[in-house]
Amino acid sequence: MLQTPWLKTYEKLGIQNLEPADRTLADYVAEHVDVRPDSVALHYFARSWTYTEVNEEANKLANALRDLGVGAGDVVGFHMPNIPQYVFGLIAVSKLGAIGSGVSPLLAPPELAHQISDAKIKVLMSFEALAPAVTAMSAPACLDCVMICGAGDMLGAADVKLPNLERVKATSYRAATENEDLHFKTVTVAPTKTFMIQYTGGTTGKPKGAMLSHRTLLHNPLQSLALAPEIQIGDETFVSAFPLFHIAGLCFCLMSFVTGGSYELLPDPRDTDRFCEAMKLRPPTRIAAVPALYDMLTANPKFAEVDFSRIVMASSGAAPMTKTTHDKVVSLIGKPVMSDIFGMTETGPCHTTNPVGAAKSGSVGIPCVGAKIRIRDVETGEKDMPLGEVGEICSAGPQLMKGYLGLPEESARAMREIDGEQWMFTGDVGYMDEDGYVFLCDRAKDMLVVGGFKVFSVEVEDKLAALPMVAASAVIGTPDTKRLGNDIVNLYVELAPDFKDRNEEDLKSELTSWIRKNMAAYKVPKKIVFIAAIPLTPVGKIDKKKLRAEAVAAES
User: Which of 288, 338, 344, 484 is the most exposed, having the fewest neighbouring CB atoms within 10 Å of its CB?
Assistant: First the structure.
């Protein structure tokens, strides 16, 4: 029988059940136009758009897409950084009853062509700087049109250069939308219909398209907010540099539009000066970032100049946050507003949130309202683990995807029926305590086995973060050819600036000595490699796939 210890925590915190609202993004925008037409919905550098203006831009784009043959069920790809046209596109496909698909700007031409083909993208909205990649690909048969968006579209700048693709129409955003009607009759769409096809990161193989419904994506922000300080409808400022093509960025943006908030659109997460300046101009109520970005932000003196008097929540997700980073953020903000959020593309994304004011250190929180969590044995996935014991984290509830596009076998492996309900086997390893708080140990693929003992890479990395010499670190395993079924512990270290001129062998000796004194013998790395910078994925996760490839190449 499913254990539900989080329900007593709900009761203690006064958290109420939440029924799915079953509304689309277009529905929410229409309501805000009626109730708060002149409230600012979107900020981008020096430009702002009210809800009325955002709605009109989305209407023009919806009319343009309809003229290009896009109707209910057709797919529009968003191949752009964080620019306003991306947001207008999300609303436009919702109005059309069409489907959106976030496409990473970092994809190489063959990868771009693969996703367009896999998702059956009919119109690709791309960015002018990405036109060379579009031109270089072999255009899939499903693609009818490429619409190029320019950085100056909203400023009356000259038209952009269009890609030259055989058989595929090319147009610019300005040319397609400038003469379109400011009104559009929104198509009625069932909440269970697919709203977005979001692709997984592809860390264990080819990216897979997770089909996410309107219900999943528009209800999930409310599930998470139900565990946060009460939302002030129409009076919130959301700031994040998560890319919109990533599920975390998409969710945070939708959270702003669901609540009638003001969304600060930041195109470059590494531009911490711009991030801080935006917050100084418009003090945030809620911010979201990955731990690596919080490290960069807190290292920028401008972060300490931000007025955080209105902030009620600082969310962290996509990777575990060390206690060192957590304490630094809280110290600079001046109040305990940190909230770890845990999830994945397939869970829309959040399925646990650490309640602000009731967070447990080291935990990723309790199940979001309406979500359920169970811990299953890693070996078979058929047995529930007792509270406090480690296993695979499984999730159920309205936040789950419908399945992987065109991959029924993959979908069946990931989503399994337990007691008549669909459960997502996340691939994350952790445990649940007696209050329903979930503690993440590692990704299943990142967990090492040494001499029969489990080594959780996150635990080792967290402890190393306290060392002055360590700016960042990553632990990966490579197969131990002398002991079948065992791993060799490899430690990659990015040195702090003050240590980069020191002798590497001396530093390795110091590091090994410290680890031997502070960790079990089986956790001591066999190989230590100093590198210029720990590689990160586009959203700030440690790119362990790249490090594994480097480790294997070094051994061959």
Answer: 484
